[in-house]
Amino acid sequence: PIERLGQGLMSEPATLNGLKDQADGLRELFGQSPPPVHVVCCPTRPSLALSLVSELSQSLVALERTVMWVDEIDFANREQWPLPCKVKFDLSKTLQGFVDLDQSVSPLQPTLWYGLSLHTARIQDSVQTLSDRLMRSGVEFDTIIVSTAALKAESFKHYGARIHCTALTGCEASELNQTFEWLAQTQDQTPVASWSLVLAGEAGTSENTVAWAEEKVKTNLGPNVKVLGHIDTSVANLPLNSAWHRWPELTAKLTNHLLIH
User: Fold this and answer.
1) For the chain, how far is it from start to end, CA to CA, in angstroms?
2) Residue numbers of the chain with a pLDDT score lower than 70
3) So what's the pLDDT on residue 243?
4) 77 phi and psi, to 5 degrees?
5) How many Cβ atoms sit within 10 Å of the Cβ of residue 9?
6) Interior CA angle at 145 toward 240 and 183, to 5°?
7) CB contact at 8 A, 120 and 95
8) How far apart are CA 165 and CA 67, in angstroms?
């Protein structure tokens, strides 16, 4: 039987005066395609991925996108950030075929769904991807966005075929090296369609540090990696709850990156 989500829960998203953007037009021309998977990670401070994904999810919902938030951040790394809802089963149980999809994901809003996925990286066998399962769910999802920590890259192939990775990284050599290690580990596990970085460095020193970091990124990862922007606060000093309100232009750029990939 086809697993269906949200019967009696979903409401039709409103339209903006019938305005159609490029993504909507392509969807009309070619029909629904499996949603892409966007992975967000801060290797040196995993909880920042939670606050960024929470903010980006709301931005996408405001643009009438339907989002699946997959959360891989374990309790030891959440810095008291609560789960957004009660969780019946880990998403890995659905991917392994033990429980239906509606037992492991929950609607936070009519167009924003959430699943906790702490054990998916342990799945050894090939399974039907989350992206394919969502295609059969009765809800038309536009994006899967994953908040993850380093050392979880084995899970990404279980979410979908098109993986886009964005890392939030400090500009110090040790922080960059940790990020490079995560990116290399991810590339070893699954093909990655795009790489992008956000650089964080203290005000006053960030200009030189960011320039050095950008050069090191290109040297290590090649010219195809996009540096989407930088913020003038170190990773360690970013306030978890309000981190992204101070940089609305960067948040908008990140949202646009999710929309076009």
Assistant:
1) 31
2) 1-32, 203-210
3) 77
4) -110, 10
5) 12
6) 80
7) yes
8) 17
